[in-house]
Amino acid sequence: xxxxxxxxxxxxxxxxxxxxxxxxxxxxxxxxxxxxxxxxxxxxxxxxxxxxxxxxxxxxxxxxxxxxxxxxxxxxxxxxxxxxxxxxxxxxxxxxxxxxxxxxxxxxxxxxxxxxxxxxxxxxxxxxxxxxxxxxxxxxxxxxxxxxxxxxxxxxxxxxxxxxxxxxxxxxxxxxxx
Length: 178
Known about the structure:
The protein is α/β, with parallel strands linked by helices and 178 residues long. It has helices at 7-15, 33-37, 39-53, 65-77, 133-144, 163-167, and strands at residues 17-20, 28-31, 58-62, 80-86, 94-101, 104-111, 121-129, 148-157, 172-177. The chain has a 7-stranded mixed beta sheet with strand order 5-6-4-3-7-8-9, with helices on both faces. Strands 1-2 form a two-stranded antiparallel ribbon. A hairpin with a 2-residue loop joins strand 5 (94-101) and strand 6 (104-111). The radius of gyration is 15 Å and the shape is globular. The protein starts with 6 loop residues before the first helix and ends with a strand.
């Protein structure tokens, strides 16, 4: 899958706040908080992602902004939502997946008990796809729990950072590109 263009992408672009030199000098941060705070923006994002996630029986969101969108999409589809958390936020036992960042490593976790993912079809949602580290780790984690990840869907894809290639062959759908 590829990126959408048109009214949803235009709305996302118009509402996104660019922040220079954050979180470090030379980085231009794409702040989607204004998109989520705008009723038209959040509705357009939710509806568009629900269309591509149709058929999933569970929507997973990556900590933390992915939770916002995944919960809205799950509500729209009438499915459950799985929160894929940063390490140390869930009580044990957990399943964990480590991944590398340009400045270190991080770990994502899901509950090892209480949620049976075996045989379920899951769409993983996040706000931004950059290098693909967290999305790739989330997909491996959910699949290790026995689910089939049918799609990765994001509000914005940062072109040129290799995220899409890093999570291949997982299909990626992005609502906008920057």
